[in-house]
Amino acid sequence: MNFDIMNKISLLGMIIILLSILTFAHAVEPTKPNIVVMLVDDLGSGDVSCLFSKQVQTPNIDRLANMGVKFTSGYVTVPLCGPSRAGFFSGRYPQRFQFVNNSGGIPTDLPLFPSVMRESGYRTGLIGKWHSSGPMPHERGCFDESLCSPKSSPFIDFHHPTLSRNGVVEQSDVYSTDLFAHEAETFIEKNKNQPFFLTVTFNAPHILKVIKSAQLIRKEYDASVAAGHPIDVPKVPMARPGDLEKFTAQFPGDVARADTVATIFALDQAVGRILDKLKQTGLDQKTMVFFFGDNGGHPENRSENLPLRDYKWSMYEGGIRVPFIAAYPGVFPAGLTFSQPVSSMDIFATCAAQSGSKVPGNLDGIDLTPHLTGIKKSPPHEALFFSLGGDGAVRMDQWKLVLIKGEPTQLFDLTVDEGEKHNLATSNPELVASLTERWKNWYKEMPAVKDSQSEKK
């Protein structure tokens, strides 16, 4: 055979092999999922219709649950806004860095979720409430874009929000929930051709401002419920103009409750707008979406936790267990109800693992994916720990230990007693001793700071 022909055939073969290798390499190159996290404020588990009650209809939150996973034992780190959010952003117990009340802050040298994603090539954005002392989001090097509270605060005006866009303060006359949805849609559209990580921290349905002591409201509310006639809790109206009238007939004589449900109605619509935008841009199958509350509801804002016991600031389930949903089409099973305890700390580790980002060492959160897909049968956490104001709690398997200052130790089996009504401590002394020791050992790992409940927002 002619050598020139042989050489050409050999060269052609090498080119085909090389192209095959390059094509295969491109085919198996991992795709970075987009990430959207929606964090809501003081929403009760009894106010999401895919959980305990149909009194309040949330079709778009329910839609997200049908797309993915509904966590029926989803927890936050602290039953209080500021440190709870810090647990999410850091993937750690906030007690580790002494953020134990609303006046605390996230250390500037701590690797945060958005900074890790940014270093991994993501465009990062924050829209909504910011509640951490110290540098503001645009000063932390975490976010490429931010529209948030101009200073660390529990409050955003629903009707005329004053916000900071990348450090420049501006005021809007757009209802805050609608504004945040619009800004989220704009961010998604602008960044649809690159990986992005967007956090939308809605202020709904948190109260607009303090009218009366929250503890006094709680006492008055509990007394009125026990007497069989809930009170119309005093609060500044929060609902979008025109929405309150849609719910007044459902809650006769309880305008505060109707106002809150109208506020949740607008929130659910905002969730729907964000989901619709992902679908419109063709990103719905390529995006991880998380939705969770920062703590339980409270009579002060008239959100509902039932059948869970107690409210925000509490070690009972109504304080620390929250609406918690995640969707990632093709990876997380659609329509799954996951009953094992998980934490908002886990969102960081899960997204970092799925995006191929470098996970910082010593995270308390874990990657939930193998547990959701069935690769791992064990619970994601051996135990979860909680503390606030000197009170504590442990959740391990079906058991819940509650340690309240000045009160007997309490133990509940949540599989049969979700409302924590039957204390089983005296009949399970060895389990109580074991869980108490676990909590003490965990607490010893935390810096020696004094927990405080002095700030109640």
Sequence-ordered SSE layout with sheet pairings:
Layout lengths: L2 H26 L5 E7 L18 H9 L1 E3 L2 E2 L5 H10 L22 H7 L3 E6 L16 E4 L13 E4 L2 E4 L4 H15 L5 E6 L12 H13 L28 H26 L6 E7 L23 H4 L3 E4 L8 E3 L3 E2 L2 H10 L13 H4 L11 E5 L2 E6 L2 E5 L6 E4 L15 H17 L12
Parallel strand pairs: 1-8, 1-9, 2-11, 3-12, 4-5, 4-8
Antiparallel strand pairs: 2-10, 5-6, 6-7, 9-10, 13-14, 14-15, 15-16
Describe the model.
The strands form three sheets. The chain has a ten-stranded mixed β-sheet with strand order 7-6-5-4-8-1-9-10-2-11, sandwiched between helices. Helix content is 31%, strand content 16%. The protein folds into three domains: 1-27; 34-382, Alkaline Phosphatase, subunit A, CATH 3.40.720.10; 386-445, 2-Layer Sandwich (Arylsulfatase, C-terminal domain). Helix 2 crosses helix 7 (255-280) and helix 5 (176-190) runs parallel beside helix 7 (255-280). The protein has 457 residues and is an alpha/beta fold. Residues 5-9, 15-29 and 452-457 have low confidence and may be disordered. A hairpin with a 2-residue loop joins strand 14 (391-396) and strand 15. It contains eleven helices and 16 strands. The termini are far apart. The longest helix is centred in the first third of the chain and has 26 residues, at 3-28.
